[in-house]
Each structure stands twice: as C-alpha cells, then as structure tokens.
C-alpha cells in the first residue's frame, strides 16, 4: 500500500508548527495527480499558501515509490532555503510515515564552487599565464581568504560553495572559480578526485530529490540532459521566471575585450601570426561597433556582421592550432586547455552572430565603463522549453503569479504549452501516440487561491486625476502625490519605480518636503537597505526592478506600495521589440502578447509585496491612470489580487493615517 499524501502533509505541517490550508491540500492533490498521470501542471499558489510543502510532499512520495525528482528554483537563495531549511524539516517530520528516509542534494553550476586547480595553481593573467600571486589591495586580501577557506572546506568535507564563503567581491571569486568551458575535467585535473563541483554532481546522482536552479536546468536541457541526473519529474518553483532565465542561459555576448583576451591567452601555444590575426579581428569588431548605433543588428548592418565573421574565422584557426599536439604532457598546468575553452567560446558566439539566424535576435549595447558589445538571444524560448524540458517528462510549474489577465494561457505559451492542449478539470489524460515536436502536450491549470482576504486587507488606489506618465519621467504632480501618500503613511512605504532616475528623483522630492527617512536603491548594498527598511517601520525604501520581486516585508513595515507607472518594457529594448514584432507579423497582437504580459507579471509581483501575512493591511497606489482608462487596463487589473478598488484620494489618505495610528 502506497504512502497517503494527505497523511504525509498533515505530519509535515504539524512538524513545522503550521496549519493545513485548503489551498495547500488542493495543491498536494493536484501535484500528486500530475505525477501519476503524466500531465503537465501549471499551479498558482498565492503567498501564504505553503507552496513549498505543497509540492515537496508529493515529490517525496514519488521519489520513494518511483524515481528521482528534480526541483528547480529561480534563485540560488531560494535553492539554499529549500536545502538548508525546508527539506530537512520536512524529512524530520515525515520520516516515520515513509518506507525509508529519502536523500536530497543541491546542484549548482560549476562556477558556484571553488576550483582547487585555481586555488592552488593560480588564475590566468591576460597572457594566459597561471599566476599564483593574487592581486594587490582589498581584492588580493579577499583572494587569500578565499583560498584558505577553500582548503578548510576540503578538510571539513564541506561543499566549497560560494554561498558559504567569506565576504568577497565578484572579482575575487573569479580568482578561485572557473567556468565549465575552461574546466580541465575530472580525469585530467590533478585535483579531480577532490573537486567540489564533481562531488556535488556525484551526490546528486545518488539523491532522491535534487534541488537545482533554472539556469542549470536550462544548461542541462541544452546539453542533452548530461548535467543533471536522470529524472522523470521536474518541479519548477517561481515558474514565472523560467522563460527569462532560459533566455539568459541561451543568450551570449561578444566584445572586443573578450576576443583580445582570448588571443593573448592563446599566444603562448599558437603561431604568432594566428594570435595576431585574432587581435586584428578584435580591432575590426571594435571599429565596427564604434560606427554603429545601439539597438538591433539586422542584415543591413553588414559592418558588424562582417567583423563577427572575421572573428569567427580567425578564432577557428587559433582553435585548430591549439588542438595540435595537445596532450597532458604538453599541457601540465592546464593553461592550454583553458585557453582552448576561451577561444572556442569566442568562435561559437561569433559564428552564431555572423549567421544572423531568423530565430535569434542580435543587438548592440553600450556599457558605460566597458564600451560597446554585442548580445544575442533566442527570439522565443517556447520551442526550446517544449522540446527540451517538457516533451518527455512531467513538469509541475508553480508560482504565486501564473494567471495573467485571468487565465494561464499567456504563461502557458511562454513555456511552450498550447492553450488548445489544456485539459478540463474532469478530463482524463489521453493516450499519446505521437511524441514528435508537434504532438500535443496535455496540461492542466489550477489556481488554489490564497489564505488572504484581499478585499478586506488591501486597497487598490489608482490616481485617475494624475496625467498619464511621459518619457521625461515623473512631473511635479506625481511628486506631490508621492509626498502626500508617504506623509499620510508616516513612512512605511515601498516605492517601486520604472527607472533608477525616477526612484532617485522621488527620493529627493520626499526628503526635501519631509523629515521622513527615505532609503534609495544605490545608497548601499541592497541587502543592507532591505534589512534597515524591515527593522525600522517608519523608514521607506524606493527602488527599481530588483525590489518588485522577492522582497518579503510583513507587518507595519510596509503599509503602502507605490507604483509610479505601468512597467511596460522600453519600446527601444531590442529583444522585447523583436518578439513583439514577430507576433504581429504572425497575425497576433504583439503588444498584448509581449508588452502587456510583461507588465502584468511585474504588476502582480509588485503588488504582492504588500500583503505577506493574514494580519497585514495596506494600500497599493498606482500613479498611472492608464490601468483604468486604457483598453488593456482590464487585462492588467485581472492579473492583480482582488483588492478593493478606489480612485478617491481623500479616502486613501485617511486610511493611511488610520493605519499609522493603529
């Protein structure tokens, strides 16, 4: 007789001193059902539902009775939370009900682990020489501390994971870690048997449940399932982030500095003429970029594409030269293999850019400190996700924000599921004869709701009297509105702005008009600002995109969330603009499919910062009247929690003052 998921959930909730909620029960049943019948599942579980237990409980049962389960999270932080807190607590609470205690492991990308070869042999300089002496100054001191920490981790049989390393900057970590492409491989590396990354992979291969992240899940898909251990079920938490993370994993960049650095590293091992040719190609790329404007690169821009082709051809010659007479004796310190990895990366990206495939978008950006460079990413990742992630295993995709415009269709399309293949609640999983790329992938969508009573706990205030926002940023009327709202709230405000300039301007306006303490993103490290905001209820925090998602501020710390404008993507953002145009050319509505969907998702995430507990109360103030006056406004509002709506400014100011007095 199998394990009863309801009994297991009850024990799990009791073990963490929690309370079973109807939405959590519905989620456990739905996830368990999907694992049994093989259908895909999109499941929206509002904040406070207990989402982690909702999928971990059936995952335990499947892993014990059937086969390994992979759980993928959007961030390394959430990945660590599951491994360090949620999964151990769950196993302790349910151990007596299971035939055996399941094992679990965490798996991250190789660059998240210290590399013993780099720690002991040094990192390559610009000429590819392995230099043992760390940089001078603060970075150098951090490198020394990281090396000592890595050796101690080895002695203590710990993971060598960056999350547990001493405080350091990214430049210091680069001196003790390595990208997968430059890795010597466990068989050739003199420290392969001790390697932290290899140990993590081995532990994952033995585990019943593997906790990974969306980036590594993407890499595993692109590399034909050779990175993660075999599994037949994947659970994707924070699934609304999956398309963006896959886009990032499938994207690349190419800059003159990258090409020049690869050429210098290869010079030790190749003919000088070949290395010089690659240097010349980097100069040609720089010249072409300098003559080009920011934005999408299309067929008409032959100078950039010709330069990319020159980089491709010269990198191919250097790579071929590096491959001659390459063996362990020829490369005792691994520097040649690492140089090959760097040159191969340059070749692969340049080849992809020069091809200008219709399924890719290439664009030029100008980074203030580093100059111009090329970026490339897929026009869409839906097909990639459908073919590489969803086709031959069960996927459970969950988040607090998966229904946009009132249904799952928008997210389903983004992850490669077709609305036409959606099953009704009482439909049985059909027999599938066709497993080809065009075959159906049946899926269900379920919103298990939220324990919060949004109509009673939250007000959605739309400032209809304000003018629509314009490109020049916020105006005097918006600043006056922000000052009045924050004053009425007595601080206690999270300000979510569409740009850094808007956040800084609003901060300056409130600081000038009041004595309230306003923190602004950029004043200090974001973790420090968030901690100060949470600890002092009368302090407010203003910022941009990174505050729209993931910030947890329950209680009176946050009684007011201000959103300055609907967060549409910039019209000149090349990838979004290309995707929107592609939908239009295919006969669809590109604005609604791309721009409005993007904005709806961010609005849902942003408004979700307000109510985090059943006792929370507050107001979301949207200063953009288009959310009620424009035709697309109903789609955006349907994507938000069901808060009580109003445009009455005086009622809102009064409600904020009462909350301040409570």
Automatic annotation (TrEMBL):
PROSITE patterns: HELICASE_ATP_BIND_2 (PS51193)
Record key words, sorted: ATP-binding, Helicase, Hydrolase, Nucleotide-binding
Domain Helicase ATP-binding: residue ranges: 10-309
Cofactor(s) demanded: [4Fe-4S] cluster
Superkingdom assignment: Bacteria
Alphabetical list of SMART domains matching this protein: DEXDc, HELICc2
Biased composition (Basic and acidic residues): 322-340
Molecular function GO labels: 5'-3' DNA helicase activity; ATP binding; hydrolase activity, acting on acid anhydrides, in phosphorus-containing anhydrides; nucleic acid binding
Family per record: Belongs to the helicase family. DinG subfamily.
Protein name in the entry: ATP-dependent helicase DinG
